[in-house]
Amino acid sequence: MTGRLVIIGGGQAGFALAAKLRALKDARPITIIGSEDVIPYQRPPLSKKYLLGEMDFERLTFRPESWFAEHEVELLLSTYVEEIDRKAKTVRMQDGAVLEYETLALATGSTPRTLPASVGGDLDGVFTVRDKRDADLLAGEMKPGRRLLIIGGGYIGLEAAAVARHLGLEVTLIEMADRILQRVAAKETADVMRAIHDSHGVVIREKTGLHKLIGENGRVRAAELSDGSTIEVDFVIVGIGVKPNDELAQQCGLEVGNGVIVDEFACTSDPSIFAMGDCAMLPWRGNRIRLESVQNAVDQAEAAAAVLAGGTAPYDAKPWFWSDQYDVKLQIAGFNLGYDETLTRKGAREGSLSIWYFREGRFIAVDAINDAKAYVSGKKLLDSGIEPDRTILADPAADLKQLLA
Ligand SMILES: Cc1cc2nc3c(=O)[nH]c(=O)nc-3n(C[C@H](O)[C@H](O)[C@H](O)COP(=O)(O)OP(=O)(O)OC[C@H]3O[C@@H](n4cnc5c(N)ncnc54)[C@H](O)[C@@H]3O)c2cc1C
After folding, report:
1. Do the domain assignments include residue 106?
2. Domain count, the chain
3. CA of 12 to the centre of ligand 1 (A)
4. Are the CB atoms for 239 and 245 separated by under 8 Å?
């Protein structure tokens, strides 16, 4: 048995690291320090079924509370790590307590970007969605007939819009860029998702930013938009992206870029400190990237666990992602970074569609909209390195299985 592993952050990656080590029969002492007051749970439903009220918290947790004691994983909840001392190999918590580590893992996740107080970001009724507490507060606002303004047309904003319409709210979504999903998806995908939201009565205003939120008695009441118009609102969701929680890494002098810089073994510039999940910046196909997804949090943490348990395999990220909006399931395989061409394929079912991304002629990612076959085929192609035959892709009647034959 080796010395203590301290994991800072009890989210998707932190839990996956501890669970994988135990699955590998690694018996070292493990302590997870988490700032939230609840046991580790998955976040995706917070902007989907949990917000809709269709999923209990018990179904969000990765394991029941008893799992931690049974597997000798110490869990310190409501505990925030304030400082890392790399020389002494200790972490200091906000109550002054100090804990020694032999190995440290940063699994601190990311934090939603907020609006500054100068534009009304500090008013009551202005929300972000990151944790259970946020979702619970938000759920209390989601009452039929209320007017919701969503700032930002990314996945979180669009998912919240879908939930709100389902619950009978009036929803306006503003997006400063030319179109929704600008940062993450092609125009073709954005066009489909916009049309779906239009048909559900969401008012989407692209190329429209926020000038200022107006408050009354400390609570948001209206929004002045960049086009000069003013709309009345009851509450606001800000979905303008996240920033990595890399302050601790900066404080203790680790190499940091857009997140904690790690190598292909999830190791930071200090060989006894690992970082994984949303907070880490990893090498990928000659680039350094940060991935904000369940896939990356789990796979990177599990790869790190294998290394800690004596393995030598590097982590080779195989990104995938999903988003649920109304009865639409968007599944993404691959990472469309730097794409220069897309191909749209109509699926066999009414409303199913896939958008295939290429860079310099090579297939790199697919967005599958209600089209599980396209998603599965795309994922298999990426895993195997086989280039899809474009004549098959372009023919809606062709069976995608032929792509892998
Ligand atoms: C609303 C929502 C919907 C999402 N939907 C999807 C989806 O559909 N598909 C998908 O693939 N991904 C989705 N994601 C992203 C996915 O949940 C994240 O990528 C994933 O949770 C990252 O895991 P993580 O462990 O890095 O961070 P987290 O799960 O955020 O965990 C980090 C934890 O560390 C704690 N922490 C931070 N600093 C400290 C400190 N100093 N001391 C102690 N504790 C600390 C935080 O409080 C938090 O509990 C969604 C995220 C959100 C918020």
Report:
1. yes
2. 3
3. 6
4. no
In Å, how far are 185, 205, 325, 372 from 351, measured between CA atoms? 18, 24, 14, 12
Q: Are residues 86 and 203 located together in one domain of the fold?
A: no
Question: Does 186 fall in a domain?
Answer: yes
Atom 14 of ligand 1, residue of closest alpha carbon: 44
Alpha carbon of 313 to ligand 1 centroid (Å): 25
* Residue where a domain terminates, one of 240, 261, 294: 240
Structural domain contains residue 318: no
User: Facing residues of 227 across strands?
Assistant: none
**One domain for residues 47 and 118:** no
Is residue 145, in this structure, part of any structural domain at all? Answer: yes
- Report yes or no on whether pTM surpasses 0.90: yes
CATH code, domain carrying 371: 3.30.390.30
Cβ < 6 A, ligand 1 pocket: 8-14, 33-36, 43-44, 46-47, 80-81, 107-109, 129-130, 156, 245, 248, 277-279, 292-295, 297, 321-323
Confidence at 380, pLDDT banded by 50, 70, 90: very high
Ligand 1 nearest-atom number relative to CA 82: 41
Helices (H) and strands (E) in the chain, counts: 10, 27
Express each pLDDT in 138-154 by its tens digit: 999 999 999 999 999 99
In this structure, which long-range contacts are made by residues 111-119, counting pairs with CB atoms below 8 Å and at least 24 apart in sequence? 111/242, 111/243, 111/245, 112/238, 112/239, 112/240, 112/241, 112/242, 113/238, 113/240, 113/241, 113/242, 113/243, 114/238, 115/151, 115/210, 115/213, 115/238, 115/240, 119/210, 119/211, 119/212, 119/213
Tokens of 111: 């934090």
- Both 286 and 344 in a single domain? no
11 Cα: distance to centroid of ligand 1 (angstroms): 6
Over the stretch 41-99, which tens digit does the pLDDT of each residue have? 999 999 999 999 999 999 999 999 999 999 999 999 999 999 999 999 999 999 999 99
Task: Point out the ligand 1 atom lying closest to the alpha carbon of residue 34.
Answer: 44
Pocket test for ligand 1, best of 6, 7, 8, 12 (most atoms within 8 A of CB): 12
Distance between Cα 127 and ligand 1 center (Å)? 17
Tell which one of 42, 51, 278, 323 to mutate to probe ligand 1, the residue whose CB is within 8 A of the most ligand atoms. Answer: 278
